[in-house]
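Sample 1 of the test manifest.
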Amino acid sequence: MDQPNHMTAIELDGLRKEYADVVALDGVDLTVEEGEVFGFLGPNGAGKSTTINILLDFIRPTAGSATVLGHDVREESEAIRERIGVLPEGYDVYERLTGREHMEFTIESKGTDDDPEELLERVGVADAIDRRAGGYSKGMKQRLVLAMALVGEPDLLILDEPTTGLDPNGAREMRQIIREESERGATIFFSSHILSQVDAVCDTVGILQSGQLIAKDSVEGLRDAQGDMTLVVTVEDTDGITAAVDSVRELPAVSGVQRDGDRVTVSCESGAKMSVLNAFEDNGVAVADFETQEASLEELFSTYTEQEVEA
Amino acid sequence: MSTEDGGLAGLDRTLRNTFGWYTVSKKEFRDAIRSKGLWLLGTVFTLLFSLPVIISLYFQDWESLNNAQTQAIRENGMQALLSSTYTEVVTVLVPIIAIFVGYAAISKERSSGSLKILLSLPHSRRDVLIGKVIGRSAVLTVPFLASLAITAVILVASRLTFKPELFGLFVLFSVLYAMVFVAITVSISGVFDRTSWAGAASFIVYFYSTFVWNLSVNSIGQLLQNRLGVEGAIRWHLVLLLKLANPNQAYKTLTNSMLNTGDTPQLAARLSMFGRGANRQVVCTDVLNGAWETQTVQFLGQAQQISTCSGGGTPVPFYYSDPVVAVFMVAWIGIAATLSYYTFAIADL
């Protein structure tokens, strides 16, 4: 290994995890720079949590290596966990302990001098500070564990599906906290399968699909790479549409096609609109209506994963 | 946070800075001590512990006894009660409470996911295991000590002579025995990710140790002789060592030795681990360094031979002495935790 690079928050090198009957991670290489807000995206079962569990030394890779803040995840896990804050996936709180006791336990474990009340205030559950966490709602538990992750101003926050269990308002507050932590200088690494909530906060996005990293770029870069626009075409009659979709897909300027009944969503370069529409007409399918829009990350994501399935 | 204001806060801080497991054990104690089931069990335990004393001491017909008998009961009643009834109650009941306290300690955190919170913090898996053994031991010790204290009060109020130093030793060994079983169950809990399996495995260990081990050791001794021709002193050495390896037997023989007021308590306690099927003469002389004396006495007009084992001028061998037996017993804490650690440390969570 090289000298640990202090500008790198997370580095995965050929990371592979096999279980008895499935390959959860299939050689993932990834670098997350310090100070970045990194969105780790992919459908359920893509391997996001497996990756995070390896970073935390909950599970051990079959092959490859991973470092966090310059420390090897296997050899120096405690040193890593001194400096990070974690919102794990599939966690549970201690039912008989109060919110305050959860915070005190975390503060004592990390050896910091944070104020439990202040942190719970920040995540919005200060009212319930002296109630047992077993009586908290799913969203309150999520906020409590987020507050625990914020203890000690960690250099890196690892948040696994942070908006799960939160209402839209809660999700917005979560994004606000991510922004604040980023401004403080922390690196944020979070996973999500709810993409519409991601592009607003991420600097960089990585897309994981079936254990492989199929894309990594800035949000803008991904859009560029994917073509500048999305064309939604509504056809008059679905006769012959399969052949039409196939020939649209074969156009060099088209990066992804999705069909839903009489609506076909096409990701393509901005100059390719006419050739897409012509491809429909050439196959005898009349276009009733079409509209263009800039690709949202959600659509980028589905075109990506769609391609992967078809490949 | 508090500065160096001494007292409890200062001690808390010192412990936290010295021992990696301390914070985990404190969390563990706070969490588990609030279990209602634990206090229910503690109450049942207190009742089972104090009822025999109350019944036998307050309702017994003392009037029909003569002075000498009354005197003897007064003088030695506490030891008799402790070494017979109480060691049995402790060996049968304490492990059950220990299992209740410990069986879910790690496996439940694993299946529910709270272990992910615990291990996201800078705790090593070793600190988690040690912290859980210590925290859960403390959890069991609190209701256990409470019920022993109530028992002590009842004893003091009874007509028996209360001997605090003997009672104190009994409490000490009983608490150690309880800790051994907490350590074993917590360790078993670290091996399983299903709480029900951890509970079942702990119960099997308890059942084997309490009801089966001793019998099977006697059978092993028999087999050694019949099949392998291991005879005489070697056979009985092996049998005694195997008996002492059982925490249940180690605890019983330790309390027996401690409560025995004779000249050679250790010898008597070890010898009493052997039943009628054993060659007690060989055990006495060749295994325990005792002297075997056979006297002929006249009993109801017939000559009868009575054999006794007394200290033969040399103490029991070092490796059968009380301190070593205590080490035997406490060693299970380390053995169980070590085996568990090497399973837990490599497990994918």
